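Comment thread on ticket #2218

A.B. wrote:
> Attaching the input chain for the structure job we discussed in standup.
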Amino acid sequence: MLAFDRPAPVLPTVVTVLLCGQCGTDPFTARPDRRFHCPCGHVLTVRDIDLDGDEEWCVTSAGQLAYLPGPVAALERYRAALVVMNDRGAWGVELEAAHTEFLTALAELEAARLMGVRLPSNAPGAIGRVFLAVVVKEDGTYGGGNPHALGWPCTSCAPRNIDPSNQESYPCRNPRGHAWRTVEGWKLWADRRDVRTYRLLSPIAPDLATARERARAMVARERAGWQRVSA
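C.D. wrote:
> Ran it. Output below, let me know if you need it in another format.
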């Protein structure tokens, strides 16, 4: 199957494909002439694109013109929600609203990164990454891993409940730290006869399945490099 015959990845919900204003049904597709064409014949140039407010335009992997919320405003809302979430006195409706705003703004920032829209220079490097505490088997192949990512349900980021069977989950705010502690714990408690190694990998990925595929590929490339050196 040729690359352009493959189905395009599912777009994040915050990304909206721009439909032609004349026919109202078809999207605009990028062409080599650096313009966007609709099957009905309507053509747009970059100068014709006029978005409202803080929105940013982008081009999907299928070449379609789209737009999404601007990352500057999203980052401001992300940080404001984080202040409330880090306040030990916040609870109830206030904390739930902060969790919702945090996840909404994070989804917009992750979508911007996925679509190639530049994030502000002070945006956290963890946005769009999945941190995996990875086991590398004796033969140098990927042996699985425990994942952590910003916003994913996390018991470590929630207040400790007296009843361990009723522990809450809050949106994760420290995925790299959690993954690193897992790796260090594995190393500490590993049997001396255990020839496996433990790593922290952090591929950029929109979901866990993709993150695991990319982590497996990273380990495979390293293994191939070792084999060339030792040959």
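A.B. wrote:
> Thanks. Noting for the ticket: The CA atoms of residues 92 and 98 lie 10 Å apart.
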